[in-house]
């Protein structure tokens, strides 16, 4: 556990950038720069984004219920896990742009929900830094990040639920984790009050 705790902060973002970037590079190296490879990169980065998102999404709730070194580490590094998710979704955007070029503009079609999601992600990433966060104020920061986190939870849950038929082995566990995550966030405050009393 000591090694896990020592690995924190921007090291998380750096390693996430390298690992996900290497993953995308390997896909393109072995499968070429074509439609199939772009779709594979899109699916892969969606999954890495989901895992990183879940780590940040449940950090506070887990800490409320289980007070140990791991949940302390998770909560302390929630910001960096969120930024790592933004990095992963940047690779996702690059693959989407690549798909557009590979299909001569046929896909992907304009997606208002996806565009709104990226605007939210940009705003959340910018306000993860101290000065921009101070400029918008604590209340606005909380509203933005609460809306953003729940938007991404809903987006991942809907998208992966629709893909369960394609690959139950991959998408069903992710959907289960997403459902457990929202349940944990809902019950954590009540459980904390129960333990406190």
Uncertain segments are: none
Oligomer: single chain
Let me know the largest β-sheet.
Answer: none
Helix- and strand-based class?
mainly alpha
- How do the helices and strands follow one another from N- to C-terminus? HHHHHHHHHH
Mean pLDDT: 92
Tell me the helix content. Answer: over 70%
**Total helix count?**
10
Shape: globular
The total strand number stands at 0
DSSP strand content? under 5%
Give the terminus-to-terminus CA distance: 30 Å
Characterization of this structure:
This protein has 197 residues and is an all-alpha fold. The protein has helices at 2-6, 10-31, 35-57, 59-65, 69-76, 78-102, 112-126, 130-136, 138-162, 168-196. Helix 7 crosses helix 9. The model has no long low-confidence stretch (mean pLDDT 92).
Question: What features would you highlight for this structure?
Answer:
10 helices; 197 residues; mainly alpha; globular
Question: What is the compact description of this entry?
Answer:
This protein is 84% helix and 0% strand.
Task: Outline the secondary-structure elements.
Layout: H1 2-6, H2 10-31, H3 35-57, H4 59-65, H5 69-76, H6 78-102, H7 112-126, H8 130-136, H9 138-162, H10 168-196
Helix pairs in contact: 2-3, 2-6, 3-6, 3-9, 3-10, 4-5, 4-10, 7-9, 9-10
């Amino acid at each position: 556990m000591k090694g896990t705790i020592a690995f924190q902060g921007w090291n998380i973002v750096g390693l996430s950038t390298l690992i996900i970037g290497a993953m995308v590079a390997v896909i393109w190296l072995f499968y070429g720069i074509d439609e199939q490879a772009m779709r594979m990169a899109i699916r892969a980065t969606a999954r890495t984004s989901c895992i990183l998102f879940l780590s940040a999404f449940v950090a506070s709730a887990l800490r409320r219920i289980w007070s140990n070194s791991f949940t302390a580490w998770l909560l302390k590094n929630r910001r960096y896990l969120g930024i790592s998710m933004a990095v992963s979704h940047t690779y996702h955007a690059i693959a989407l742009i690549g798909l557009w070029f590979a299909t001569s503009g046929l896909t992907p079609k304009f997606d208002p929900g996806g565009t709104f999601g990226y605007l939210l992600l940009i705003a959340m990433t910018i306000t993860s830094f101290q000065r921009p966060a101070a400029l918008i104020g604590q209340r606005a920061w909380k509203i933005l990040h609460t809306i953003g986190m729940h938007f991404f939870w809903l987006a991942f849950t809907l998208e992966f639920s629709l893909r369960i038929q394609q690959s139950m082995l991959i998408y069903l566990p992710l959907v289960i984790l997403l459902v457990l995550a929202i349940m944990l966030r809902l019950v954590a405050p009540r459980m904390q009050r129960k333990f406190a009393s």
